[in-house]
Design brief:
The chain is an alpha+beta fold. It has eight helices and four strands. It folds into two domains: about 5-105, Peroxidase, domain 1 (Orthogonal Bundle), CATH 1.10.520.20; about 110-180, Protein Binding, DinI Protein, Chain A (2-Layer Sandwich). Strands 2-1-3-4 form a four-stranded mixed β-sheet. Helix 7 (about 120-135) links the parallel strand 1 and strand 2 (about 135-145). Helix 1 (about 5-20) crosses helix 2, helix 2 (about 25-40) crosses helix 3 (about 40-50) and helix 4 (about 55-65) runs antiparallel to helix 5. About 15% of the residues are buried.
Amino acid sequence: MRDETVAKNYAETLLEVADRNEGLEIFGDGIEMIARLLDENQSFRMFLETPRISVSQKKEVIQSVFSDKLPVMLINFLVVVLDKRRQRILGDIAREYQILLDQRLNRMRIEVTIARSMDESYQTELQDKLTTLIGCQAISDIRVDPMILGGIIVRAGDMIYDGSLRRKLDGMRRRLLMTNLHPVGDS
């Protein structure tokens, strides 16, 4: 089985467990915290992935370190992941869980690129407009990229709306280059 399929199966199971226990978002925050730790802390990643440390030692550490930070059923899930030796796909499981959670809660993550940072009131207004346009709760990830010069680029799922000034100027340049210009006075 491919890692992506396995991660999705684990994420579906975790969603079911979360739904029956302390809550979908609490589990989402917890699995996201574990995934961030794996990305940002090389020692933690090596600890979980090295075969030199026994699974029982890894489980003990996970249970003692996270007992007051994560729901018990999420810790139990992590223990099962360790038992099945799937800890290297925990980041994939977290990503798949977030996708499933967003579907369940009728929301969509949208990447917004702008040329300059915007104030909070404009961010709220943009969020509201995007929510209205897509018909579900928009969760915006706003990035600043001065290279787009102005305007906005919105990525929502497979759709990309490029309203950047750079794209508009490039389009104008292409049209001008394709136009046959006649010298003044020619008819």
